[in-house]
Write a structure and sequence with these properties.
binds pyridoxal-5'-phosphate; 2 domains; about 25% strand; TIM Barrel; eight-stranded parallel barrel; about 450 residues; alpha/beta; disordered N terminus; nine-stranded mixed β-sheet; Lyase, Ornithine Decarboxylase, Chain A, domain 1
């Protein structure tokens, strides 16, 4: 398969980062604002580290995505938000209110989606290793569809569904063997990835699904990876799926649905934004004319730019080699830089810092790992202790991936909506860290 090139611009400066984020504004007095709320106010009231999400931003992005599908003649495309990107109940409620469904990958995500008011009829279940308990819950709740990833899972689901006296709609997740040209850890559509049924084996698996009790094969699904910034990989994958739809129909199978997965990327580092119109066009040109119910499962694109992580400088440490700005946020809060070498924009929150001279520094967390580094050699306004910074594009795969490593409580979360804001998760209490730990009675008595 061909590789797909993504052009990378120069590292963006503060002004261009703000310009690339319509939800951010640098007010000369109030400093950096998310939607209508000064982030300094939230940091002062709630302390740091603190996640802040923008509900208005999510709605605006959703409208833009819907508009792109409308423009391509795909207005009927169903959007199932990939809950894994940010599973907070308030975020899911924003999705529910906007009429968006959910793509879940665990019983926990399924229950979160239901709790937020997303109806079972708008929930699809993906994932390579759904457990029997996951599948039993999905069948009992009567969700819209299960995207099955192997013939082994087909057999398992059939037994569960038939025992429950139900018939469940299934799509087969096909691995199209397409290179998404993204980070290796989030590539999912190559033949050597664990995901999906090989496209060469999909027809046989579809026939097998149709022969099993309790299953109603309705179509195909695919998802080739995440953080994809060009249309070409999507076009290549969807063309292969379209070919399969035609082949299955020619063999006498009924195929009414295709779930096109997620994967649309966001420009973290000044890259060109993903060409939404071109991606929608690729979908229209490959699968649009096949009389299918089309679905997509975006996660990152909807919520990534809607969130920031606020953090305060603990101290600035100058060594013979480098200047280290040590933050109170760490890799346990936002793991993406440590895990994927991800680049995140970092902006001082105070207005006067915009004009301060910028010098290179390593921006690091306090955790005892060198990997706990948010940015290396970042040219950023001189920062002193207690200065607050906003780490941008932290709304997706941020708080959901947090841990309590180094016995650091989970950070506070706030939600901005226009000029209002609320705490949507208080900081975890220190005692919560060990409240469910048990020291056997025979210890501690010596
Ligand atoms: C099956 C499936 N659908 C959707 C998504 C969401 O991807 P993204 O957040 O890149 O849109 C993922 C994430 O990897 C996924 O595995």
């Amino acid at each position: 398969m061909a590789d797909f090139e993504v052009s990378l611009a120069q590292e963006p400066d503060a002004a261009s980062l703000i310009a690339a984020h319509p939800n951010l504004r640098m007010d000369p007095v109030d400093g950096l604002c998310l939607e209508g709320v000064p982030l300094a106010v939230i940091a002062k009231d709630l302390g740091t580290p603190c996640w802040v999400y923008g509900a208005g931003t999510i709605r605006t992005r959703l409208a833009a995505l819907r508009d792109a599908f409308d423009q391509a003649g795909l207005g009927a495309t169903h959007i199932h938000y990939a809950v894994k990107a940010n599973d907070h109940l308030a975020v899911l409620t924003v999705m529910a209110e906007a009429g968006v469904g959910a793509d879940v990958v665990s019983a926990g995500e399924l229950q979160r989606a239901l709790k937020a008011g997303i109806p079972p009829s708008a929930i699809v279940f993906s994932g390579v290793g759904k457990s029997a308990a996951d599948l039993r819950l999905a069948v009992a709740e009567g969700i819209a569809q299960i995207n099955v990833e192997s013939v082994e899972e087909l057999a398992m689901l059939s037994a569960i569904s038939a025992t429950a006296g139900r018939t469940i709609d299934v799509t087969l997740r096909v691995n199209p063997d397409v290179d998404a040209a993204t980070h290796a850890k989030i590539t999912t559509g190559k033949a050597d990835n664990k995901f999906g049924i090989a496209w060469t084996e999909a027809a046989a698996a579809y026939g097998f699904a149709g022969s099993l009790p309790g299953l109603h094969p309705v179509g195909l699904a695919t998802h080739i990876g995440s953080q994809i910034l060009s249309a070409a990989p999507f076009r290549a994958a969807y063309a292969r799926i379209a070919e399969l739809v035609r082949d299955l129909r020619a063999a006498g199978h009924t195929v009414t649905r295709v779930d096109c997965g997620g994967g649309i990327g966001i420009p973290y580092e000044g890259e060109q934004p993903a060409p939404l119109a071109e991606i929608a066009q690729a979908l229209a040109e490959t699968l649009g004319g096949l009389d299918l119910d089309l679905m997509v499962e975006p996660g990152r694109w909807l919520v990534g730019p809607a969130g920031v992580l606020l953090s305060a400088v603990v101290l600035v440490k100058q060594t013979a080699e480098r200047r280290f700005v040590v933050l109170d946020a760490a890799m346990n809060d936002l793991v993406r830089p440590a895990m994927y070498d991800a680049w995140h924009g970092i902006l001082p929150v105070a207005a006067d810092r915009m004009a301060a001279p910028a010098t290179p520094a390593d921006i690091v967390g306090p955790v005892c790992e060198s990997g706990d580094t948010f940015a290396k050699d970042r040219v950023i306004a001189a920062l002193e202790a207690d200065a607050v910074v906003a780490i941008l594009d932290a709304g997706a795969y941020g708080a959901v991936m947090s841990s309590t490593y180094n016995a650091r409580p989970l950070a506070t979360v706030a939600l901005v909506d226009g000029s209002q804001w609320d705490v949507i998760r208080p900081r975890q209490e220190m005692s919560d860290l060990w409240s469910r730990e048990i020291v056997p009675a025979r210890f501690g008595t010596r």
